[in-house]
Amino acid sequence: MLAFPSTYTVGITSLGYQVVWATLAQRSDMDVRRLFTDQGDPAHGSQRGRGADLDLFGLSLSWELDGPVLLELLEQQRIPIWASERDDNDPIVFGGGPVLTANPEPLAPFFDVVLLGDGELLLPTFIDAIQACRHTPRAERLHQLAQVPGVYVPSLYAPRYGPDGQLLAIEPTDTGIPATVAKQTWRGNTLSHSMVITPEAAWPSIHMVEVVRSCPELCRFCLASYLTLPFRTPSLDDGLIPAVEKGLAATQRLGLLGASVTQHPQFADLLAWLDQDRFEGTRVSVSSVRAATVTPELGRILAKRGSKSLTIAIESGSERMRQVVNKKLANEEIYAAARYAKEGGLTGLKLYGMVGLPTEEEADIETTADLLLALKKATPGLRLSFGVSTFVPKAHTPFQWQGVRPEAEKRLKLLGKRLKPKGIELRPESYGWSVIQALLSRSDRRLAPVIAAARGRNESLGGWKKAYRELLEQGPAANSAPLPPWEEVIHASWDPGRVLPWDHLEGPLPKTTLANHHKGALE
């Protein structure tokens, strides 16, 4: 069974989930059913589909706050939520996706197996390994799976804490278990595309094609860039065009996805190809593009193909802050992007940024507001919106050592005060939810009881805070470590020499390189 921690409409729009499902469903040695929070594929026979009848229960996780939903789905299938309570009659519970690849530790006690990295090679290798040992006792199966590159078995690794509660190490509990597990990287000539096109998706009837994977810019906070290195681009003729053609045989709506799609070396050729008369009536949309790569031709072709707006990430209106985060972007390039979007016939420009970045001052927020107001004046008639979130530290990025800054809450309000009266739409993400996100992205296994206690009330900020507070008041259970300290996990800046909860999991870049990038940013 392959689960997604949201409704069918949201889950089927996830390209990662679609690809994993299709990869498994195409195997002759598997019977795969999907499960969402509101529906699932029908079971075969009267009792099938519950935990005892499953060999595997998989979950795709792309959002930290979805952890409690996993537990609800397990309970629904009558599978024990704690991996330590499962026996030979229970399925192997496995998970993957960016959240678990970055830092699986807060959720580790709920998973038997975590797959680290790209699924193209990792998933078939994992399934082959499962099939080879499916009739052996559970403990032996897990031991064998732990030998597969990229397969992390949390129960075979134990955290060690100092008397002050500081994490000292996460070490194998048995000889023959690798000391570290490395993320797996797909280096093939093709990337993913939609396997399901449906009007019921959050983006109805869209065929999604992954144009690039990772991003070469390396903004110091960015998980999408650092965790998925190296930057990969499929071949135009052998990868992208066949993937697009396949989808356009079924629908007239095309979505080009990636952290920075216009940085594909042949993106201009792809655009020219989509400009042909035979694609009349096809609606093309692109995810975020790098501002410096926007051209009048890009604006013209997207407008001609039904796009209304373009999305660029500026991070901050302050040139100083953009240098801190390694955003190689000049003010003039932002103005040019807006101008070219308007000249091409697009009616809107969506900009994205952050508050609470390391070393940021209130003057940088004022400069951001000034830039957006000047941009509105320079391109009258172009609808501007600014989506802004609070900086949240992510594992395997140079800013993993930085905490959430409490001033961010006030700075979100300051932007609202400056921009809303002037007709710029501000779409701020909740500061409170960013705090909970940081708690989950930076914690270790000691947070698992909080995630378990939050289920059923995880829709509200108060529910999360109450779950933490109640467990704090109860004190740790016998032989259990105390909860990770709220303030230290969320807001504190950490020493670069500190042992991190994910140190035993190897990302694309070594910790020393991330530390150098971190040091360079703050200097």
Protein topology:
Elements: E1 2-3, H1 8-11, H2 15-25, E2 34-35, E3 56-60, H3 67-76, E4 92-96, H4 98-102, E5 113-115, H5 119-132, H6 138-145, E6 151-152, E7 157-161, E8 167-172, E9 181-182, E10 206-210, H7 223-226, H8 236-248, E11 253-257, H9 267-274, E12 283-286, H10 296-304, E13 309-315, H11 319-324, H12 331-344, E14 348-355, H13 362-378, E15 383-390, H14 407-419, E16 425-428, H15 431-442, H16 448-454, H17 461-474, H18 486-490, E17 505-506, H19 511-522
Parallel strand pairs: 1-2, 1-3, 3-4, 4-5, 9-17, 10-11, 11-12, 13-14, 14-15, 15-16
Antiparallel strand pairs: 5-6, 7-8
Folded structure, characterized:
The protein has 523 residues and is an alpha/beta fold. It contains 19 helices and 17 strands. A six-stranded mixed sheet has the order 2-1-3-4-5-6, sandwiched between helices. α10 runs parallel beside α12 and α16 crosses α17. The chain is globular and about 65 Å long.
Termini separation (Å)? 49 Å
Using the alpha-carbon principal axes, give the shape. globular
Given helix and strand content, the structural type is alpha/beta
Main beta-sheet annotation: 6 strands, mixed
- Report the helical percentage: 25-40%
Strand content: 5-15%
Instruction: List segments where confidence is low: pLDDT < 50 over at least 5 consecutive residues.
Output: none
